[in-house]
Amino acid sequence: MTTTFNENRAQDRKYMAETISTIAADCGATVTCEAGPREISLDVATPDGLQVCVEFDGRSLQPNIYVLSWHMDFKSSKRLNPDTFGGNVNTCHFKKATYVAYGFEDLCDQFTFGLLLAKDGRAFLPEVERLAA
After folding, report:
1. From first to last of its 133 residues, what are the pLDDT tens digits of the chain?
2. In Å, how far from its chain's centre is CA 84?
């Protein structure tokens, strides 16, 4: 049986944030956490400059729908590869991608997918294509 977590419940938010933090650490990313009385915000960054913020908002009007706004650090020369990264990569500059996750399980799957692609380099365009982009 799959347990359904809801960001409107305080103990679920805590568990969800801990789970995302563990996934990030397992994938070699760093996490900075800010928590308020009804929200938790996790800023995640990979060594190559890929970043994303994951928020659990107890006041959300659309609970359990998560927008992952992936973006490259402005200091990074790397560009996202739309053929491998998934989501909606901005093909104007290849520095941002958006994915909407429906429910915590989908969030974990998509979050893990993005971080693993960054870890092994498949998230990024090869150097020759980056120069042309």
Report:
1. 356 899 999 999 999 999 999 999 999 999 999 999 999 999 999 999 999 999 999 999 999 999 999 999 999 999 999 999 977 999 999 999 999 999 999 999 999 999 999 999 999 999 755 455 5
2. 15
The contacts of residue 68 (CB under 8 Å, 6+ apart) are 52, 54, 87, 98, 99, 100, 101, 107, 110, 111, 114
Q: Are strands 88-89 and 96-102 parallel, antiparallel or unpaired?
A: antiparallel
Residues 6+ apart with CB under 8 A from 18: none
Give me the residue label for tokens 């800023």. Answer: 43
- Give the C-alpha separation, 51 to 116, whole Å: 13
User: Is pTM, for the whole model, over 0.85?
Assistant: yes
